Recover the amino acids of this structure.
């Protein structure tokens, strides 16, 4: 299993000009996440906002993906202290926070990643994050988990320059669907306003030396985002990839019948 000390490796990668590619795990299945890890993804993100997963799925997923050296991230339902704390205690290598509306929301959420006096994360050692009490170096102030802030609201986009400057923010992540709706141009990903928004996020991240990330529906779209400068790529989700593979294989077989 990936140890608490190893979990900081992903955070370090987000501060280097390095590409990482993972998937969203929305099925709520540690086995499905393990299959993704065994297939070579750089990380797996358990989606507790839109996916089937709850808190109970995080800990076994950490163990399953960690066996292959792939860290588990968690997208929480919100930026509440208890949501972030439970994900981190379960051993998540980082937390993605959705639906924040500006820099003040981000500052409040980032405080939940740190123990006092810097932040307000609850202190406990009998959890996977601290190897059930046998490895507690994180209590001394080291931050091993990465903080990924979604840019999917008009307010977050307007304040993205302030958000990337907040100490503790390691990645800004675009949710294309939500952002396009927030801009009043639903699913119009080639619209000049949407393209300008992506450029603004990329420029802000580059100035602060952190990664800009985005969700891509398939590898072709992902490559276009990589060419633009995105370095943290979510290549679809376990459910969509499974569905696509089934449909493609059925199409071949039925087409030849």
């Amino acid at each position: 299993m990936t140890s608490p000390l190893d979990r900081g490796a992903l955070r370090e990668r987000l501060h280097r000009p390095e590409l990482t590619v993972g998937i969203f795990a929305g099925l709520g299945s540690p086995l499905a996440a393990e299959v993704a890890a065994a297939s070579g993804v750089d990380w797996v993100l358990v989606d507790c906002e839109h996916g089937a997963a709850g808190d109970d799925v995080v800990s076994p997923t950490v163990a399953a993906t960690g066996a292959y050296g792939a860290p588990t991230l968690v997208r929480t339902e919100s930026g509440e202290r208890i949501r972030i704390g439970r994900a981190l205690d379960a051993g998540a290598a980082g937390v993605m926070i959705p639906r924040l509306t500006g820099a003040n929301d981000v500052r409040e959420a980032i405080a939940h990643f740190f123990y006092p006096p810097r932040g307000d994360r609850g202190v406990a050692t009998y959890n996977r994050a601290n190897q059930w009490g046998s490895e507690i170096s994180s209590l001394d102030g080291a931050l091993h988990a990465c903080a990924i802030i979604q840019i999917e609201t008009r307010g977050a986009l307007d304040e993205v320059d302030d958000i990337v400057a907040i100490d503790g923010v390691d990645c800004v992540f675009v949710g294309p669907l939500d952002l396009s709706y927030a801009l009043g141009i639903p699913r119009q990903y080639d619209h000049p306003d949407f393209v300008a928004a992506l450029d603004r996020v990329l420029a802000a991240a580059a100035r602060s030396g952190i990664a800009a990330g985005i969700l891509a529906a398939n590898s072709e779209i992902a490559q276009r985002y990589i060419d633009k400068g995105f370095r943290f790529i979510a290549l679809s989700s376990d459910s969509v990839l499974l569905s696509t593979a089934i449909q493609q294989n059925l199409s071949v077989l039925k087409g030849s019948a």
Notes: The chain has one domain: 4-256. Residues 1-5 have pLDDT under 50 and may be disordered. The beta strands are 20-25, 43-47, 72-75, 94-97, 146-151, 169-174, 211-216, 232-237. The two ends are 46 Å apart (CA to CA).
